[in-house]
Amino acid sequence: MGDELKPAAKKPAAKKPAAKKPAAKKAAAPKLALVKSAGAAAGAPAAAAPTPSAATPFVLTPFSELQPWHRNARHELGVQEIKGAKHNARILEYHSVTTLRATTDEVPWCSSFIAWIMEQAGIRSTRSAAASSWLQWGHELTEPRLGCLVIFRRAGGHHVGIFEGWNNGRLMILGGNQSDSVRVSPYDKDGVLGYRWPDIFTKPK
Q: What angle do CA 106, 110, 115 make, to 5 degrees?
C-alpha cells in the first residue's frame, strides 16, 4: 500500500504590527506678558520696601539710605588683621580713639571700630575698647532698626556691631573683628543684650 499524502501544515498567520498612535503634541508654554502698572508707566517711584522682619530675605540696603556712621562702616569693609609681627595701621587707628589705645591688631577691636566710625561722624562714642560699654550709650530700642548698634554676649566676653537686616531668622551684623576683619556676618538673636541708637539723632519709630 502506498504512502498516503498528508495535507501540508498551515503556517500561522503573521501578526500585523499594531498601528502607532500619533504622538501627542506638546502644549506650547504660555507666554508671560510683561505688565506695567500705571504708576510705572508714568515714571512713578518704586514702592517702599517692607519693614525688615525675621522672615524677610537679607538684602544689603543701598549706601544712599544709610545713616552717617553706617556709611563710615561700609567704607571699611575688607579691612583685616595682618598675621605675624606686622599690624594693620587702619586697625591701630580704630584703637587710637579709645582710652586703651592698643598698639596691635590682635587686641579685640570690635568696640574700637564702632567708636572710630561714630567719632568720624561727629558723634561722641564711649571711647572704650569694651563692647559692653555700648549698653549704656544712646537710646535703648526694643527692636533692631537699620543702622542701630547691637550688643551681644559671646564666649569670653561681648561683641558690638551694626544691624544690617535679617537672614533666615538671624541678624546680619556689620562689624569689626568678625573673623579678624570688617565684614557682614550672621548672629543668633539669643545672644543679644541690647539695641542702641545715638542720642543726637531722632529715635526711630
A: 120
